[in-house]
Amino acid sequence: MNAFVADEALTPAGPQASGEAEVLLRVDNVSLAFGGVKAITDISFDILKGEIRAIIGPNGAGKTSMLNVINGFYHPQEGTITWRGKVRRKMKPYEAASQGIARTFQNVALFKGMTTLDNIMSGRSLKMHRNFFWQVLWRGPAEREEIEHRKKVEEIIDFLEIQAIRKTPVGRLPYGLQKRVELGRALAMEPELLLLDEPMAGMNLEEKEDMSRFIIDVNQEFGTTIALIEHDMGVVMDLSDRVVVLDYGKKIADGPPEEVQASQAVIDAYLGVSH
Amino acid sequence: MVGSASATLRGEDTFPKILLHNAQVFGNRTAFREKDFGIWQSWTWSGVAEEIRAFSIGLQSLGLKAGDKIAIVGANRPRLYWAMVAAQAIGAVPVPVYADSVAEEMAYVLGHAEVVFAIVEDQEQVDKLLSMSDEVPSLKHVIYDEVRGLRDYDHSQLHDYATVQDKGRALQAQSASLKSEWEQGLAAGKGSDIAVMLYTSGTTGRPKGVMLSFDNLVISARNGNEFDHLDETEEVLAYLPMAWIGDHVFSLAQAFTAGYCVNCPEGMDTIDVDRREIAPTYFFAPPRVFETMLTMIMVNMEDAGKTKRAMFDYFMGVARKLGEKILNGEEVSLKGRLLYRLGEFFVYGPLKNRMGLTRMKVGYTAGEAIGPEIFQFYRSLGLNLKQLYGQTEASVYITLQPDGEIFADTVGKPAPDVELKIAESGEVMYRSPGVFVGYFKNDAATGETKTADGWVHTGDAGIIADNGHLKIIDRAKDVGKLTGGALFAPKYIENKLKFFPNIKEAVAFGHERDRVGVFINIDLTAVGSWAERNNVNYASYQELAQHPDVYAMIESHVEQVNRDLSREPMMAGAQIRRFLILHKELDADDGELTRTQKVRRSFIAERYGPLIEALYDGSATKYVKTEVTFEDGRKGAIEATVEIRDMAFHDAGTASREAAE
Questions:
Q1: How confident is the model at residue B595 (pLDDT cuts 50, 70, 90)?
Q2: Is A209 within 8 Å of chain B by CB?
Q3: N or C terminus of chain B: which is more exposed, having fewer CB within 10 Å?
C-alpha cells in the first residue's frame, strides 16, 4: 500500500495533442513465470503519453500480472521495461510510485477505519518533504506543508465530487464510492501514469457512467496517461484510445477498439473455439 | 403604484444602486460566502461590487443591451446571484429557471422568455442549452461558471465566467471613464423597471412568466426585514432553487436591502453539515425539511443509551409544557423557568446545535400544511419557527405570523402594506406593493388574475379568523356548499382528520348534499402497533378496519374534529355527520390515488357510489364488493359489510355561523 518515502516533485503533463506521440512506457518481450506456471509469455506493447490504454482479456489471461509488472510488484524473468525513454532496472513498487506510477486495486484497498480525507491525504505522503523531526514537532514548516497538501487534496475531493463524504470513515461507504475514494488517493500522487485495475467491477450502471466520466476528465484535465483493465466491453470501447488483448499470457491483438473488436483471434478467445 | 413613493423615501430603488450603497456603508462586511475546496470563501460588499461591475462591463462588451432577457441556470452560487445584478445594472432582465427541469420544459421557458444570454453553472447545463438551440433561436451567448469538461467545446458563443469578468477588468484598466459611465448607466434605472422574471412552476398548463419590478421586490423585502427585525448581521443559507420566488427574496432582495450575508453550500448533499457550520440566523424551509430533521433525531434517540433517552424524554416533556409559553412571553413559574434552563443546557441546546439552528432568530415554513406536532416540537425547543403564506405574484409576502401570535393552523396576519379580503366565493384576494406587473406575453392570464384596481386572485379559499389571522382551507375550485348553505372545504376537513396518526387517508363528501359524510382509511402501521400492544388479533387490513375497538377509536377522532369545527364559525356547518372505515386501502394501483398519493376524488365517488349512497340513506351497514388489482397485475375482489356510524352535531358555533352568513 502507500508506504512511500521518496521525494520527487512531478508536474503533470498537459493534455496529449494528436500527432507523433511520445512513448511513456514500453514493455519489450516480457515473460513472467511462477514456478512452472507461465503467467505472461513474451509480451510487448507500449503506452503513449496522454492516451487511455485498455488491457483486456478473459479471466486468468495475465492482465493483473501485467499491471503488477509495470508497477514493479513483480519482476519479469525476461524482457525489459522502458520508462520515459530509460530502461528500468529492477525496482520496488515504492520506487515506481515515486517515479509517477499510481494504481488502484481490483478489490478496494483503502484504510477502512480512516476518513475519506485521510485516505486521500495518505496518497500525498510521497510528496511530504519534512523529515521525521519536523513531523513530530509539527508546528511551523510541517504544518505549513500539510496545509499545502490539504489544498491539493481538497481539489481532488472537489474534482471527484465527494465533498459530502469528506469526514466519513471509508468502511461505512457503499462500494461505488469506495472505488471513487481509491481513485482519489491515486490521483493525490499526481501520477504521470495511472493504472486502474477493474475500476468498474461490481458497479451499477449509474456508478459506471460516473466513473467513466471521471476517468475521461482525469485524462483530459490533468493530462494523466491511463492504463486500465476492465471487463465491461462497452466501457472499454468507449473510453480507450487503444486496446491490448491478452489470452493465456500471450498478446493476441493490439490496436484501436474497432479493430480489436473485429479481430477473429479476440472473438475466439472470448467465445471459445474447439482446439 | 402605491409603493413607488415609499420606495424613494426609503432610499435606493434598484438592486444595482443598493449594491453601490452597501459597498460604501458595509464595505468590509461579508456579503457572500461559498464553501469551496472545504473552506468557506468569502467576499465583502465592496468586493462583490467590484466583481459585479467587472462582469457587467464584460457582458456589455459581449453585446448585452437593456431589455434583453438573460437566463440563469444552476444551483445556488454567488456568481449566479451576481450575474443577476450585473445584468440589472445594464437594464437587462434576469430569468432564473429551475436547473433540474427537463430540457423540453426549459426550452419552452427560455423560448417564451426570448433569452439572449444564458449564465449557467456547468457542463451539464451547457449541454442542455446547446441541445435546445432550435427551440431558443434568440440565444446568442452562453457563459459558464465551472470550466471542467468544457475545454474542447467550440468557444465562439461559449464563454468562461472568469474570462468575461477579466475582459471587463481589462476594459476598465484601458479607459478610466468606463467605471463612472457604468455607474451613470445604472443610476438611470428606475424602481418601476422590470427587475426579474420568474416562471411559476405551472401545475396547471404552461408555466407563466411573472414580471416583478424593482419596487415590488425592494419594498416587499424592506417590509419583510422590518417585520422580523432583520439587519446586516444576519446569516442565511441559500439552498432552495434560485428560480423560486422565496429564494429570490430571501437570498437576494432581502440580503441586499438589509445587507446581510448569503451563504452558498458546497453541494446539495452537504447541506446538513453546511447548515451546522453556518448556523443561519434567518432560515426558511418547506415542512418536509423540518419533518426529516425531526425523524432523524427520533431515530438517533432510539439508538441512544438509557440515560440519554431518559433525559431526552423528561426534558422534552418539560419543553412541551412550557417551551411555547416561554417563547410567546407568557407567564411561567420560576421553577418551570429553571427546569427549562436546565433542559436547554442538557437537551435543547445540543439538539439545536445538531440541526444547525443554534443562532436562528426567525425561521419560516410555508408551501403546505405542517403537522401541528412537528411545528410545536421546534417551537417548544425555543426556536422561533413561524408560518407564512405567499405567492410569486405577491413577491412572496401575503400573510405572516407576528412574534408571539403563533397558531399551528393559521398562516398569520396580512404582511405590512398588504390588504387582504375574502371574495364572495370564499377566495382569498390581496393587494400590496408587491403585486406583480403582469405575466410576460400573456395579457389574458394577467387580466384573469389581477383586477383593474390591483387586487389579485390567489386561487385559494380561506377564512379570516376572529383573531385576524388568515386560515387557508383549500384550493378555491374544490370548495363547495352544503344544501343548507354552509361552506364545505373537503381538504380542510380531511387534513384535520389526517393529522391523527391513526388515520392515513380521508375523503369527505358534501357538495350539494345536506350533510358531510366521510370515508376513512386507517393507518396500518400506527393502528397495527396499537393492536400489538393491546393484544388485538387481526389477519388483514380489512379485519382490523372492522374491529369494534378501532371503530371506537376513529369515532373519538372524528368527534374531536367535529368539536374543533364547531368552534370555527364558518366551518361549523360542515361537521361530519356520518363516517365509515373503508374495507380496503386506497391505492394508486387501483387508480384511487395519484402516483404522488393524492386522492382522486371523482374516481372514488364513482367507484364507491353505493357506499356514498349508504352514507346518505341512513342505513347502518352496507354490503359491498370491490374489485382490486394486486401488485402482479391480477385482479381479485374484496367483499365486506361496512358499518356506518352517525355522529352528533355540536351546536356551539350555530349562532355565529348564521352571523357569518
A1: low
A2: no
A3: C
What part of A 158-177 touches B (C-beta under 8 Å)? 158-159, 161, 163-164, 166-167
Q: Tell me the pLDDT band of B10, cut-offs 50, 70 and 90.
A: low
- Tell whether A137 is within 8 A of chain B (Cβ): no
A72 and A201 together in one domain: yes
Q: What pLDDT is attached to residue A8?
A: 37
In this prediction the pTM is 0.79
For residue A11, the 8-state DSSP code is P
Q: Which three cell numbers stand for residue B516?
A: 358531510
Taking phi over 0 as left and psi of -120 to 50 as alpha, with beta for the rest, B139 belongs to beta
Q: Which of B37, B266, B269 sits opposite A155 (nearest CB)?
A: B37
The three grid cell numbers given for residue A263, joined into one nine-digit string: 479481430
CA-nearest residue to A156 within chain B is: B37
Q: Which helix (H) or strand (E) holds B53?
A: helix B45-62
ipTM above 0.90, yes or no: no
Amino acid, res. B248? H
Could A163 and B266 be called an inter-chain contact, meaning their C-beta atoms sit closer than 8 Å?
yes
Over residues B601-615, the mean pLDDT reads: 87
Torsion angle (degrees, nearest 10) of CA B153, B159, B163, B169:
160
Are A95 and A221 found together in one domain? yes
Q: Which residues of A touch B273 (CB under 8 A)?
A: 164, 167
Q: Give me the mean pLDDT over the B216-244 stretch.
A: 93
Query: Are residue A91 and residue A197 in the same domain, yes or no?
Result: yes
Count of CB pairs separated by less than 8 Å, A with B: 33
pLDDT tens-digit series, residues A162-210:
999 999 999 999 888 899 999 999 999 889 999 999 888 888 888 888 8
Cell of B210: 411573472
